[in-house]
Amino acid sequence: MRLFVLGGGQLALMMCWESQRIPVDFSVYDPDSSAPAYRCARRPADPLEEVERADAVTFEFENVDISLAERAERLGKLRPPLAYLRLKKSRLEERAFFDSIGVPTVPWRRAAGWEEALKIAESMRRAVVKVPTGGYDGKGQYVYPREAGAISRLEGELLVEEYVDIKREFSIVAVRAENGNVYFYPPAQNYYVHGILVWNIAPVKAPEEAYEYVHRILDRWKYVGVLAVEFFETSDGRILANEIAPRVHNTAHWTLETDASQFENHVKAVLGLPVREPKAIAPTAMVNILGVPIEKLPVAELERIGKIYWYYKKEARPRRKMGHVNITGGSLAEVASKARLALQLIYGRDFPRLVLRSYAASGSELASSAGGRQAVVTG
């Protein structure tokens, strides 16, 4: 069996790690010759020819060469379907998709440009203005009225969302097999700072309606593989879909500690192999390592409380995901306590410089992941 993955970042690397026992020829295409996945995967000489050779083609993030994905789709090899990848090319289209299938989301409007965006935001009183394309990990998001000046410098169509007060953020990750069977991983509760995931904990509970919304998304174009859906629970009790990730996802890295990780199940699903419902699930916390180079990481101390997964990226920069730590224990309270210790060991006093957007870039955008208030719990 031949699997070709578009994108060679840490998600492809972990897919490759988790497919080692399966008889699969695992290849990756990434224009960056130092991409993490090349430590594990084969690099094809010609990506177009590799599409022809592969039994299945998948992608590890949304900003991949669309022409390769389109070719794979025409050959009936792309999983999940191209429609989901195209959906992630625009936040506006993603919001319209939610509306079309009856999945509630943050109240939103489309603006032709910054002037209209400011008028809409003013009518909402508090709002978040987002650049529709290319944004992830909190990039391209601006809070109104605090950042009205930055909004006035934006170009093109914009997404304007009502600012909502968030009680918590959680995600549900599912795997759908080629035969339509769907398995859910237990929900994880996620803690973001300025739009980037810092840590999360699982398993937690989610209302049944959230599972129904995930089913609608999966069924729309007959999804195959792992899909993540991030939700808000608002202070007034509403469950709102924030975004989907049609791929393996950071909020499910904790599943590496189960008997059927998201990475293994994604590989098996896209290759048409049977997927497994995870059974061995212990309370687990995942802590992202952001911007810390390996020489400054307290490896021994972190290994005493958990397991380090290192991505082997060439350069450490603030807010760049360099690795993560998974921590298991007998209870959620125990692993949450250990996660706070891991945060202190990883960042110490450097947390603002390495994680906060105001330190990572000049003229920062201090929006949260979708306008609500969410912060890392450190004590």
Structural features, described:
The protein is of the alpha+beta class and 379 residues long. The chain folds into three domains: 77 residues, 3-Layer(aba) Sandwich (Rossmann fold), CATH 3.40.50.20; 56 residues, ATP-grasp fold, A domain (Dna Ligase, domain 1, 2-Layer Sandwich), CATH 3.30.1490.20; 195 residues, 2-Layer Sandwich (D-amino Acid Aminotransferase, Chain A, domain 1), CATH 3.30.470.20. The protein contains 13 helices and 16 strands. The strands form three sheets. Strands 8, 9, 10, 11, 12, 13, 14, 15 and 16 form a nine-stranded antiparallel sheet that branches. β12 and β13 form a beta hairpin. α1 crosses α9. The longest helix has 16 residues. The chain is globular, with a radius of gyration of 20 Å.
Descriptive labels:
disordered C terminus, 379 residues, 4-stranded antiparallel beta sheet, Dna Ligase, domain 1, 3 domains, 16 strands, single chain, alpha+beta, Rossmann fold, PurK, D-amino Acid Aminotransferase, Chain A, domain 1, 13 helices, 9-stranded antiparallel beta sheet
